[in-house]
Write a structure and sequence with these properties.
With about 280 residues, this protein is an alpha/beta fold. It is built from ten helices and six strands, in the order H-E-H-E-H-H-H-E-E-H-H-E-E-H-H-H. A six-stranded mixed β-sheet has the order 4-3-2-1-5-6, with helices on both faces.
């Protein structure tokens, strides 16, 4: 009989301590979860290591150039290979064509392939001279086909990189910049240059448009050295195009190479302005 009571007493103790232990276990788990949550909150708020370096992408300025404008493609190639970010492109005339091809290409290889397809049909004084005697009308039609082949009715705002295309205004010495609209139509208008617009005012309008974006250093590519723009732009690149005339389409590879070389010659200066550390600074 005593053994029976002893067993009942032991069973009672087991049940009692087991019921007491469960709340304690639940409390510990809740406390642990609160501790973990608190840790993660502190971890999110904490900052480890040096502050990230802010970078400022360059704004490239491409003006009229005819066949020498292939150097613009080399400049773009130099920036991409050096991993220098391009924030926007301001372009007019042939510079608008090269810039638009880049902003609407998926890869650099696609961009180069399209640029190399540009031929002499893209170069003549006035694409809107519809004189049947001179053949300008036929050249205009060929240009339409080639532009449609490249851009396929795309719009400026659909590009990967923003571009602003300068179109000659009705008033003298005035340029209107477009960031939206059909590329083919605007490039044709941009390539119809007004002869009475001075080179200095053209450069100034292009660079002022780049400045207005206020996103990073302005890089002007000077292909003719007709005016000093060093006070207007942050960087002036001057590719060596002594051997290339305005009509030397066959020398496009040389122009592209020299355009890229002009970037490499000033790459440390550009990276400093952008905020990219050089090898010596990283050490």
């Amino acid at each position: 009989m005593q053994k029976k009571y002893i067993y009942i007493y032991i069973l009672f103790l087991v049940v009692f301590f087991n019921s007491c232990a469960k709340p304690s276990l639940k409390y510990n788990r809740d406390q642990q979860q609160e501790s973990v949550n608190s840790y993660h909150q502190e971890d999110k708020a904490a900052t480890f290591g040096p502050n990230p370096i802010q970078q400022f992408p360059v704004v490239l300025v491409f003006g009229p150039a005819k066949a020498r404008g292939f150097a613009y493609a080399g400049v773009i190639k130099g920036f991409t290979e050096e991993k220098i970010p391009i924030g926007a492109i301001i372009g007019a005339d042939f510079g608008a064509l090269i810039g638009a091809i880049y902003t609407h290409s998926e890869t650099v290889h696609e961009f180069e392939w399209k640029v190399l397809k540009i031929d002499k049909d893209f170069f003549f004084e006035n694409i809107f001279d519809f004189s049947f005697l001179t053949g300008s009308w036929l050249r205009d039609q060929r240009l339409n086909l080639k532009l449609e082949e490249i851009f396929q009715n795309k719009k400026i705002e659909e590009g990967i990189t923003p571009i602003s295309i300068g179109v000659w205004g009705e008033k003298e010495e005035q340029m209107i910049f477009h960031r939206e609209g059909e590329i083919t139509r605007l490039i044709k208008k941009s390539m119809t240059r007004q002869k009475d617009l001075s080179e200095d005012k053209l450069q100034q309008q292009l660079i002022n448009e780049a400045r207005a974006l206020n996103i990073g250093p302005v890089v002007y590519i000077d292909l003719y050295s007709r005016g000093d723009v060093s006070e207007l732009a942050d960087v002036v690149l001057t590719p060596n195009l002594v051997e290339v005339s305005a009509q030397d389409v066959d020398l496009k590879s040389l122009s592209i190479y020299n355009g890229k070389l002009s970037v490499l010659n000033q790459v440390q200066e550009i990276k400093t302005l952008v905020g990219i550390k050089g090898e010596e600074e990283e050490r």
